[in-house]
């Protein structure tokens, strides 16, 4: 069977679910690599002789380079086969992990995180467009949910295991432990992904054209506010748990495991219920996750209450990605790679700003101020989204 197609058609009548699973593992490793510093923030700061807020910028620097890579990669890749681009991005993630694990000082750590940012931006810019080519149109939400199942896996196990193993073996050992998994994923990509030839060269004009569509621009800003709210809180969750909830490392690991395992429920729900008109669902992530952050501010002194709140936050976090990427696939189907580049740039920019602003509030004021900033961003997102109808293509 000839699996090569044009950019506007699927790979073939049979969905390439093995390739989708390979991408799901890559997502798990990307999420684990990107946000592992969250569970290791305090020991990393101590080991590198930096403040907690400064070490939080290990996440913001990867976000900065991810923004740049996401805007450039689809154009820079030209007519390169998208399979080889994804393989190259995974190889870059492997290199990044080695650099971070062996970093002798804070500056080298930042270099390793910058390399990871390039990988993040490049992979995510292409991911949704590739999924749209791997499966029939009716299966895209299901395939997206499966791919983002990797996010749930990472959220469930990476942070608690990272926190636990980091306390026993040191934070460097945690990053070293990820390298053989990424190496195996690299081989799986080469075997499972079909050839994905680019039938036409992407350019910045297509991106600018999308930004002139009011519904898409509104959606992009709303997504930025939603993710910005989420990661202003999540990046500095460990300091909050230590200072306000008063947990030790073992309890922190359990709470992070609760948060992560709840992500499986969010992924399942998104795969089952996200289809057709997504407008009513668009404000749900900001509403629930902002409410969870507010709940932590009010009841975060109780370990039991914090556990219940983090479970709801974790379920909504994984569902958020499926909801917004389904919105993108439905409302920018004529330019999926350009739309993917803009979405990834917007999301990574919001993660970057969340880490920067949250770190400044933490170092300059208190962890409570950081969480209040998260709630404010969520409220702005909810106000912009409204019923969601103004973010749909049919309402231009």
Can you characterise this structure?
The structure is a single chain. The chain has 396 residues and is an all-alpha fold. It has a single domain, classed as Growth Hormone, Chain: A (Up-down Bundle), CATH 1.20.1250.20. It is built from 14 helices and no strands. It has helices at residues 17-47, 52-76, 82-102, 106-134, 140-169, 171-192, 204-211, 214-234, 237-245, 249-273, 284-299, 303-331, 336-364, 367-385. Helix 4 (106-134) runs antiparallel to helix 13, helix 8 runs antiparallel to helix 14 and helix 13 runs antiparallel to helix 14. It starts with 16 loop residues before the first helix and ends in an 11-residue tail after the last helix. Residues 1-13 have low confidence and may be disordered.
